[in-house]
């Protein structure tokens, strides 16, 4: 009987309800994360801008005039468009005349022509300190001859870079 009492006690002990264990939250599972993205590559240094060559130009005048024609203004506008991309350069405007008139008169007329082109370029936005206006008078003819065809070629301004960087002489 002792055996049956022991079994009975064991059955009764097992029959008593034991508190159900509270489920413990599962430990978070490590989720596979993609590897961190590499830092963005530093932007490539762009190549330095290609400096434009500023081509010399000539503009032409009527006899005994320093007034800019519409063709002259258009030519100076194109020159300015190139020159503004080269702030490192200075420019020279040389006024020229045909052989008619005295040397003194032609020097003064050549200066008025050079000043007219310089003023136009400055009004477009080219700094005045970067533009020099001089007169050659009749001393540098482009065409030889003593007729209207030659004189027409000699009544001009030549506009060009003055060698290189601002502050350098020609």
Please tell me about this protein's structure.
Helix content is 34%, strand content 17%. It has 170 residues and is an alpha+beta fold. It has a domain at 65-165: 60s Ribosomal Protein L30, Chain: A (2-Layer Sandwich), CATH 3.30.1330.60. The protein has a four-stranded mixed beta sheet with strand order 1-4-2-3. It is rod-shaped. The termini are far apart. Mean pLDDT is 83; it is low at 164-170.
Mean pLDDT: 83
CATH topology of one domain: 60s Ribosomal Protein L30, Chain: A
Number of helices: 4
What class, by secondary structure content? alpha+beta
**Largest sheet, order of strands side by side?**
1-4-2-3
The stretches of 5 or more residues where confidence is low (pLDDT under 50) are 164-170
Give the overall shape, derived from the CA principal axes: rod-shaped
The CATH level-2 architecture of one domain is identified as 2-Layer Sandwich
Number of strands: 4
Radius of gyration: 46 Å
CATH superfamily of one domain: OmpA-like domain
Percentage of residues in helical conformation: 25-40%
Oligomer: single chain
CATH class of one domain: Alpha Beta
Beta-strand residue fraction: 15-25%
Give a short account of the largest sheet. Answer: 4 strands, mixed
Give the end-to-end Cα distance, rounded to a whole number of Å.
Answer: 133 Å
């Amino acid at each position: 009987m002792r055996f049956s009492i022991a079994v009975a006690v064991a059955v009764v002990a097992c029959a008593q309800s034991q508190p159900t264990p509270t489920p413990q939250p599962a430990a978070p599972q490590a989720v596979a994360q993609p590897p961190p993205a590499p830092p963005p590559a530093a932007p490539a240094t762009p190549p330095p801008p290609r400096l434009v060559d500023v081509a010399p130009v000539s503009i032409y005048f009527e006899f005994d005039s320093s007034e800019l024609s519409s063709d002259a203004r258009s030519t100076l506008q194109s020159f300015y468009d190139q020159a503004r991309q080269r702030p490192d350069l200075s420019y020279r405007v040389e006024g020229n005349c045909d052989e008619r008139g005295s040397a003194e008169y032609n020097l003064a007329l050549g200066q008025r022509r050079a000043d007219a082109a310089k003023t136009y370029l400055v009004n477009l936005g080219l700094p005045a300190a970067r533009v020099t206006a001089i007169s050659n008078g009749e001393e540098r003819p482009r065409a030889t001859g003593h007729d209207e065809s030659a004189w027409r070629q000699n009544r001009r301004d030549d506009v060009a870079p003055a060698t290189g960087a601002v502050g350098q002489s020609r």
